[in-house]
Design goal:
Shape of chain B: globular
Number of strands of chain B: 9
Oligomer: heterodimer
Mean pLDDT of chain A: 72
Strand order of the largest sheet of chain B: 2-3-4-5-6
Mean pLDDT of chain B: 88
Number of helices of chain A: 7
């Protein structure tokens, strides 16, 4: 199929578009392929949905600390619940510790994690100290959301940055459309059209033009 | 029949290959005979996929355990209705089900366009053929539902207990009908891009299909929420799980498209954007399928990890590159045909609506994929769970709710200050009134208060639009209120059906905000002991244990706990929750025990009982939740689907529409003379 002559004018725009599309596609490919390679295909009996995932105790790691001298529990049950809602259950349920342990009695991991937490609470440890102990043992995986620091800051920052960029792009687009409309109106009425680099809106130029005509 | 089905899969593969080849050849050479042959081959592909499906269903119903799929997902004691739904319980069957819907849709699209869009159709048929071919190839060469096993077991492995729920009979088909629906607009977009016929014509052809996709995705997502709520036992309906997100992503882009398409239809603008949204919706569907089926992201809903993910990844990249090339070489053809007359206009509001919808889509996708990115870059595995998605998407959702109310109040082309003041007064007053009432009643949660303020505002907008429309009809035609209301909707189904959808959205947001006040209690009780709890409305509840009972039912052993429930001393009946151990036909346990929750449902709140486990034969551990306004989630979903149905319903023909109160686009001059859009519209309708 032949490309119309009018299309050739947009070559630069097209190159830019293609470049971005290629970078995006390559990025997606690299990221997802790596994920696939790391996960690897799994053989064996097919599984289906939630219950297809076996609950194992392999992923449980004890978190133990000596009680503080003269320790008294520093948190009540509601505070423990709030803490556990921010900790991911290490079993494959993808739920938080509190939800998992109050939902699925066949999971042996969330009650074990809860036991560790309760022992730390009884040992006089604060929520922050317990959280730190958990992260020391399990890594950032144990947190239900990424920490707002370092590389993980990108998780929080990118969505809003993307939307802000989109808003700026829409603003520019709307302004361009509006300018085009005013130019078209001005051209139809035989009025001067705003040029690039002139620090005035087309409306202002039109008013100036009208004032000058009156003076003449 | 099973053998016929098995062979039909291969014939369908050949038919799809033929469809693709001759359709594209017919399009390139301009040969009508080849195009016709491709279209007939598409019908044949559907017929053979249907035969293949009937074959698999036959194998499921006859317990042919020589077939691996049948042995893996059913057993002899599986209740009969679930033999039917077992079709989509596993990877291979669900792929065949996808192909069945895909080829059915394709055949309908080809048939309904047999005398229309003829220049596009070779490319449309060819593209649909490629998609069908891809799915058939994944089955034929990787995940064959007819794969045999070396020895025939006496009984099958059985179906996952959590799939043995009526919700699972409807949820996957609805979701697939929605997912696959995005393929038809995609094919039309490819046809329009290849032929450079990028005017209104292709949009007209795809709009209804986009609506079909949106309609089924909406129903599928809400049904999925309901299934998760009644079956998984964690007292919630949305966990921002990777697979849940996969269904949400195309829903967002299709919703954005259904809004932005109006700008192209009315003003000839956003032509590049609309093509992009159509393509994006389809690609997100494939991406979602990749996520669900590759095992690349951990999810409780995911199918088994398998190499099929590579197939989907390859297809995704190829489709993305091809469409990026097509769009980039047609930028001039996609140039807007009109210009914006004012920054304060319906067009601008739609752009912001699209920005927020696509923004939520991006945030959701980003959060879903970020664990992979983090692992790839840092080597650390992290969790991106509900707190992240709620923090990011919560404010964006509220912004979207606000735009749902703002958009309809702003006139097309140019809104004057007088127009804005007149339009916004009552809806804003409604929002403030709701806010003030709730504060006076003691509500202090900021997110909930903002949600209800905006809900009041949007509700006010919708009511105002209906009141104005009904009033205009009453004064013009002297109709009664009910007749005017019904005819108002009937004469302009897109507009007023859309408002009904918005009404459903308002209800959903109100219901979501209700969960801010959720309360729960965990307890261990002996028979005859009581659990006392106060619900969010201040009512005192007493749950008296009636003891643990055990019995056998269908294909399971059941252990149940029952409570006699009173609220403020008044009996509310019995509430029971079960632990179920499914067994095979020899009485041997098959899967992990599952929970069947007990729900005392009402519009105010659900009392949600979870039998966590038995400590001994008389003592039960339970988790009782008071979930406010959950009932409204399902009701809001029904309202949205009802509104979508009104929008989809074919509009009355021009002759029948004459004299009706029809929303036509008034010119800027008419608007200025009339003062408000409603006045101008009334004039247009007259």
């Amino acid at each position: 199929m032949r490309r119309p002559a009018s299309d050739r004018g947009s070559a630069e725009l097209r190159r830019e578009f293609l470049r971005r599309a290629a970078v995006t596609a390559a990025g997606l490919f690299v990221v997802t392929t790596r994920g696939v390679t790391q996960s690897g295909p799994q053989t064996g009996a097919p599984q289906s949905a939630a219950g297809g995932v076996e609950m194992t105790s392999d992923s449980y790691k004890p978190v133990r600390r000596d009680p503080k001298p003269g320790a008294k529990p520093g948190m009540d049950a509601k505070q423990v619940e709030a803490l556990e809602r921010n900790l991911a259950c290490p079993c494959p349920c993808t739920l938080d510790v509190y939800t998992c342990r109050t939902t699925d009695f066949s999971c042996g991991i969330s009650p074990a994690v809860h036991g560790d937490i309760q022992r730390l609470v009884d040992g006089g440890y604060s929520a922050d100290e317990i959280m730190a102990a958990m992260m020391e043992t399990y890594g950032d995986f144990i947190l239900m959301q990424p920490r707002k620091q370092g590389f993980n800051l990108l998780a929080w920052f990118a969505p809003f940055a993307g939307i802000a960029l989109g808003a700026v792009a829409i603003g520019a687009l709307l302004r361009q459309w509006r300018m085009n409309a005013v130019r078209a109106e001005a051209a139809a009425a035989g009025r001067p059209v705003a040029e690039a680099g002139v620090d005035a809106t087309p409306e202002e130029l039109a008013r100036l033009d009208a004032a000058l005509r009156e003076e003449r | 029949m099973i053998l016929v089905g098995e062979l039909s899969l291969w014939v369908a593969l050949l038919m799809a290959a033929w469809t693709t080849t001759v359709s594209f050849a017919g399009g390139l050479q301009g040969r009508a005979d080849l195009v016709k042959s491709g279209e007939r081959a598409m019908y044949a592909t559907f017929a053979f996929v249907l035969l293949a499906s009937i074959g698999l269903w036959t194998a499921l119903f006859t317990h042919d355990f020589s077939i691996k799929f049948v042995a893996s997902f059913t057993s002899r004691n599986l209740p009969t209705p679930y033999l039917f739904t077992a079709f989509w319980a596993g990877q291979e069957g669900s792929l065949l089900f996808w192909a069945l819907i895909m080829t059915m849709y394709s055949a309908i699209a080809v048939f309904t366009n047999r005398n229309a869009n003829r220049a596009l159709m070779p490319w449309v048929t060819g593209t649909l053929g490629v998609v069908a071919l891809f799915f058939l190839m994944t089955m034929a060469f990787s995940e064959n539902p007819y794969e045999r096993i070396d020895w025939i077991p006496a009984d099958g492995r059985g179906m996952n207990p959590q799939l043995q729920n009526p919700g699972m009979a409807a949820h996957p088909p609805m979701l697939y009908l929605g997912y696959v629906g995005t393929a038809i607009p995609f094919a039309f977009a490819i046809g329009a891009l290849v032929t450079r016929q990028l005017d209104h014509q292709w949009l007209g052809a795809v709009r209804r299909w986009a609506l079909v996709s949106w309609f089924f995705l909406t129903i599928g997502i809400v049904l999925g929420m309901w299934w998760a709520y009644v079956e998984l036992g964690w007292a919630g309906y949305w966990a921002w799980d990777a697979v849940e997100n996969s269904s949400f992503l195309p829903w967002l882009t299709v919703t954005a498209f259904l809004h932005s398409i109006m700008i192209q239809e009315k003003r000839g603008m956003l032509r590049k954007w609309n093509v992009t949204l159509v393509v994006l919706s389809f690609l997100l569907t494939i991406l979602g399928t990749f996520i669900t089926r590759s095992g690349v992201i951990e999810s409780v809903h995911a199918f088994a990890r398998s190499s099929i993910g590579n197939w989907f990844l390859g297809f995704l990249v190829a489709a993305a590159v091809l469409t990026a090339y097509l769009v980039s070489t047609r930028l001039t053809d996609l140039k807007a045909k009109a210009e914006l007359e004012s920054m304060v206009s319906r067009e601008a509001a739609f752009l912001y609506n699209n920005l927020v919808l696509v923004g939520i889509c991006f945030a959701t996708l980003w959060g879903t994929l970020f664990p992979i990115l983090s692992e790839a870059v840092k080597g650390d595995k992290i969790t991106v769970g509900p707190p992240f998605f709620n923090s990011v998407n919560g404010p964006l959702g509220l912004l979207l709710l606000a735009l749902t109310g703002i958009g309809p109040l702003i006139a097309w082309r140019r809104a004057s200050l007088v127009n804005l003041r007149r339009q916004f007064t009552w809806p804003a007053a409604a929002g403030v009134a709701v806010f003030a009432t709730l504060v006076a009643l003691g509500m202090r949660d900021p997110y909930a208060l903002i949600s209800y303020l905006l809900a009041g505002f949007v509700f006010g907008t919708i009511i105002q639009e209906f009141v104005k429309g009904v009033g205009a009809r009453q004064s013009m035609y002297g109709e009664g209120m009910a007749a005017a209301f019904v005819r108002l909707i009937g004469r302009n189904r897109r507009r007023y059906g859309g408002y009904i959808v918005h009404f459903g959205v308002v209800i959903l947001f109100c219901a979501f905000a209700g969960l801010m006040f959720k309360r729960d209690v965990t307890a261990t009780v002996k028979t005859g002991e009581t659990v006392k709890a106060t619900d969010p409305y201040g009512h005192e509840w007493v749950f008296t244990s009636q003891g643990i009972s055990t019995f056998e039912q269908l294909n399971r052993r059941v252990m149940a706990i029952s409570f006699a429930v009173t609220r403020d001393g008044q009996s509310m009946g019995l509430l029971s929750s079960e632990k179920r151990q499914h067994v095979d036909s020899n009485g041997e346990p098959t899967f992990e025990p599952s929970t069947e929750v007990g729900i005392l449902e009402s519009p105010k709140q659900d009392v949600y009982l979870v039998f966590t486990g038995a400590v001994d034969k008389d003592t039960a551990a339970v988790h009782i939740n008071f979930n406010p306004l959950v009932w409204w989630v399902w009701f809001g979903g029904i309202i949205m689907a009802f509104g979508g149905m009104i929008v989809m319903w074919p509009q009355a023909r021009r002759g029948e529409r004459e004299g009706g109160y029809v929303a036509q686009l008034p010119s800027a001059r008419e608007q200025a003379e009339a003062g408000t859009p409603a006045d101008a519209l009334a004039g247009a309708g007259a």
